[in-house]
Amino acid sequence: MIEQLAGSWNYIIVVILMMTGLFMVIARANLVKKMIGLSIFQTSVFIFYISLGKMAGGTAPILDGNPDTLYSNPLPHVLILTAIVVGVATTALGLALILRINEAFGSVEEDEIIAAKASQSLARPKRPTSEAAE
Amino acid sequence: MMSLHTAMLVGLLAPLVVAILTPFLAVRHVWRDAAGPIGGVITFIAAVHVALAVLDGETPRLFVAQIAEGLALEFAVTPLGAIFGLVASGLWILAALYSVGYMRGNHEKHQTRFAAFYAVAVHAAMAVAWSGNLLVLFVFYEILTFSTYPLVTHKESALARNAGRLYMSILVGTSVVLLLPAVVWVWLSTGTLDFRPGGYLAGQIDPAMAPILLALFAFGVGKAALMPIHRWLPAAMVAPTPVSALLHAVAVVKAGVFTILTVVVYVFGIDFLAETGAADWLVWLSAFTILASSMVAITKDDIKARLAYSTISQLSYIVLGAAIASSIAVQGATLHIVMHAAGKITLFFCAGAIYVQAHLTKISELDGQGREMPWVFAAFFIGALSIIGIPPLGGSWSKFMLMVGAVDSGYLVILGVLGLSSLLNIYYLLEPVSRGFFRPKVKTVEVTSHPLVVIPPVLTAILSLLLFFYVDFFAALAKLMVIS
Amino acid sequence: MMGAAILTNLPALLVVVPLLLAPFSAVLPIAGLAWVLALVGTGISFLAALMLQSVTENGVRISYHLGNWEPPWGIEFVVDSASSLTLVVMSGLGFLATLAARRLVAIEIADKDSGKFYAAWLLVVGGLFGLVMTADAFNLFVFLEISALASVILIGMGAGTDRRALVAGYHYLVIGAVGATFYVIGVGFIYAITGTLNMGDMASRLPDAAGGAALYVGFGFMVAGMLVKAAIFPVHIWLPAAYGYAPSAVSTLLAAIATKAALYVLARIFFTIFAGTPEIVDIALSNIIVPLAVGGIFVGTIMAIYEADIKKMFAHSSVAQIGYIALGLALATPAGISAGFIHIGNHALIKGGIFMAIGGFVAALGARASLETITGIGRRMPITATAFLICGLSLAGLPLTAGFISKLYLVRAILETDSYVILALVLISSALSVVYLWKVMEVMWMQPAPARSPKLVENPAIYLPLWMVALGNIWFGIDAGWIVGAARLAATALLGGGA
pLDDT digits over B224-262, tens only? Predict the structure, then answer.
């Protein structure tokens, strides 16, 4: 049992990270902390994919002419490069929005924002949209 | 002679053309006001042409578009539809004349808008009459509701708007929530929505479900004003009287009972209903409506309100005929569409004439006014007699056939209901006349003369009389309905 | 041979044209030019989609290899009659939404941002087209995120008129990202089992692969992720705020086409990727998706009844309508799936029109459209309000409108499966939807406008495209042959097995 767990310790970490991230996204009221949670959540998936592609004892997939060489699967690693890019873009966009929310509401706490928007938003004068979103 | 195809096109499109042209003709009020009666004559000629063909055993058809399998946008004239088409278009001629006199005499605003929507409503009524299947019928039933809304709220007062809201919410609500599912139900269980002689639901749906389907139709057709969904009709009386006369005594309410009759005769089939007893409950409900609304009518002092409750009662005669579902009862119900239309439009014309000429709206104020407006009160008297069902007036035929039908099918209690209702009719419809002629004047009013509001009721009163002697044409059409 | 080259590359064109035009649009200094670019982009896509549809009408299945790399190494685009129908609907409505956007954007978005706005617009459209066509499970994720991130930007731009748009955008971003990540996790599991990312190969290898628990987990994650994107109850919570606070033009675009792509992908997951393992698909559909769809129908409808803000009201109504589509697809019968596809098309027409009209109201009023502000607007803006009325009737499902055809075929499909409880629930919900529509129409048409209210200006740049959509609602209600036939083919293509 222990051996089995030890053999897949990376997957255990994936699950722990995944749960941590998801919990933060759901439970935190602070928008920035939510973003951090989202990043952790996404990172766990990156590790999951990288673990999938890794062969025990495999080496980097560069042909060396020896038919006995064991290679790791490069495809998941490449995929995760794409996913990382998407993750970075998501985080950047999220943080940009948080900046704007902070300007508009004076807070990045969800409960305060919800309390604020009901009372004031309709009366607010039209603001120039230049910094609406980047 | 024009071909049947052309006749149908003309009958359907002439009112629409009038509606479209009205705003353009409004530069000269004479042109605008002539458009209605002229359109009425053209439509009526087309309707006669179509009805004659139907009498010869033809089924005039006009195909527009195929929507999907088993769903077509198509017009096809049944004998029942031919009768309703004749009634709607024929009475439109007089109603259009009358409404010119009424609107001018009353100095109403927005006469152009009024004339345009009036014509749209007639168009929708014609399309309902000649619809080729339940889907088309439903569509124009709705268009009829929508086009009459501006007419009901014509005065734009808070009262009119509230009435309009009630009118729309009941009519649109019942039709969308009950009637439309009923139509879809028929389509799903039979794959067609056509009208076929003898009906086609027998063997297609579970007889145990037939009463439920019939209930969806009976209550979904709010225009039939079956209790408890009758409230919109008295409310709609805030409209100018020409609207009450043509639409809420003829086109709109008759579209309602027409739908029920059509569904009973051409979709369910009277044999199917008679065998399963699926319409039994409807017999009793309509009998209740007949009596209850007569009772309410007695308590109303406002002429139009009394006439409205009388209409509710009379509509239920037709529903009753459909529910008894025997050949003779259905024929009686069909004839009652014609007879009641001629009689009731006379009464409304008179009510409006009294209002325009003397500005009286209450029955208690009519004392002694008969001598001031003898033609109007005479017409009222004849119309009332016809509705009560006294020979030699048209209404006696239909009532007689309904009674025979009730007895034939073993509904002896119904015979009593009809008799009692006639007694009540005598009381509340003849009261205005007797007050007018036999009571001393309580109120002196200045009576201005407007011939355009007096001639139409006199003509329709004569029509009621003629319908007694020349009933054969309609009776022959009605007989065609039940021969499959 | 130019023509032939264009023809063979049609699937790529559909995606590449909008994506390529986007950066140009972003740097254009003139708002009008950026709009022209967007119009050209969506217009070309629409033409391409129509051509694809005519090719696939006979059951032809186009397989396009991006960069000439053979699948499974390269990415494959597949266009069959199912995806081409979805594409036609999306690109057509996308084009019309772009037409109407000019005026709406000019009012709600600052001129100097218009370039960026249309850039994001093109990215959304291009991303969604890619989503529908791609046969590569991971590539799908990329398109998903392209369109999602761009939509967030568009929604956030609503902050110019209402700052709550920012919060709505943020929530959509976070919830959407979690959904997309779920999907990727699922793909990871299926990849681990089958060793391929190509949907067709996945489908053929899954039945033999000893998947075990990994199969269930992978399937569950993929479906859960797409449920979020398709805004199916109970993970629809991002939608009402996102549609409600986005700029009017964006609401139109998203309501008409965004969730449709996700719904289509869901159908592909069920009927293409997991075609070989019908037992888990059947369990998921009948035990999870059908109840969720019905739940969404009711929640959406009831929320709409209690909503006073018009945009949010119809956003809630979208949740209900998505429920109808999902219900049709989840019946998993040819009739059910065609009913789903019919409603994908018709709902796009209905909601596209409704949000365009609301945009027209907002533009003329200079305020949010709520039950209060639109009082008596029927008389003040008759052209726009009449088109709105037509689309509303279509939403209620009155005959001679597109909505009637949808309801009819959905009801028939339900009846075929003998699920009378669901039928009753659908009918009840459909009656309930009349309640909120009645509320709006009553306020618009039957109540007097506030005293001394000026006549509002109606702009042809808004109402002409709006009327095209409204007439479309009538056209497809009278001549339903095309959509019914195409939807039937789509169902056959989806259920035919294989990718």
Answer: 888 888 888 888 888 888 888 877 778 888 999 999 999
Which of C110, C141, C197 has its CB closest to that of A129?
C110
User: pLDDT, tens digit, for every residue of C75-122?
Assistant: 888 888 889 999 999 999 999 999 999 998 888 888 888 889 999 999
Altogether, the residues listed in chain B come to a count of 484
- Best residue in C433, C437, C445 to probe B by mutation, most B CBs within 10 Å? C445
What is the fold of A2-56+70-123? Helix Hairpins (1.10.287)
**Of C124, C173, C183, which to mutate for an interface test with A (greatest number of A Cβ within 10 Å)?**
C173
pLDDT of residue C2: 54
Torsion angles phi and psi, residue B133, rounded to 5: -155, 175
Is residue C8 in a domain? no
Longest Cα–Cα distance of chain A, Å, equals 74
Alpha carbon dihedral C443, C446, C448, C450, in 10-degree steps, equals 10
For residue A27, what are the CA distances in angstroms to B310, B331, B374, C238? 67, 73, 86, 16
Distance from CA of C161 to the nearest CA of A (A): 6
3-state helix, strand, coil in chain A (%, to 5): 70, 5, 25
The complex's ipTM works out to 0.87
Are B156 and B247 in contact by the 8 Å Cβ rule? The answer is no
The set of chains that have 3 or more CB pairs under 8 A with C is A, B
Please indicate, yes or no, if residue C121 is contained in any of the structural domains: yes
Domain with C230, as residue range(s), is 13-495
What's chain A's Rg over C-alpha atoms?
Answer: 22
**C6 within domain boundaries:** no
How many B/C residue pairs have CB atoms within 8 Å? Answer: 59
Q: What are residue B62's DSSP bridge partners?
A: B75
**What whole-number distance in Å separates Cα of residue B457 and Cα of residue B466?**
14
End-to-end Cα separation, chain A, in angstroms: 51
What's the number of domains chain C is made of? 1
Q: What are phi and psi of C234, to 5 degrees?
A: -95, 15
Residue C5 forms part of a structural domain: no
CB contact under 8 A, A93 and C157: no
The phi and psi torsions of C136 (rounded to 5 degrees) equal -110, 120
Query: Which residues of B lie closer than 8 Å to C, measured between beta carbons?
Result: 65-68, 71, 73, 135, 138-139, 142, 153, 156, 161, 164-165, 168-169, 172-173, 176-177, 180-181, 183-184, 187-188
Going from N- to C-terminal start, the domains of chain A cover 2-56+70-123
State whether residue C181 sits within 8 Å of chain A by CB: yes
Q: How far apart are CA B258 and CA C20, in angstroms?
A: 62
Polymer length of chain C: 499
Tokens of C61: 């299945």
- What is the nearest CA distance from C190 to chain A, expressed in angstroms? 11
- Assess whether pLDDT exceeds 50 at residue A125: no
Round to whole Å and give the CA distance between C390 and C392.
5
Report yes or no: C401 and C354 within 8 Å, Cβ to Cβ. no
Residue of chain C whose alpha carbon sits nearest to that of B164? C446
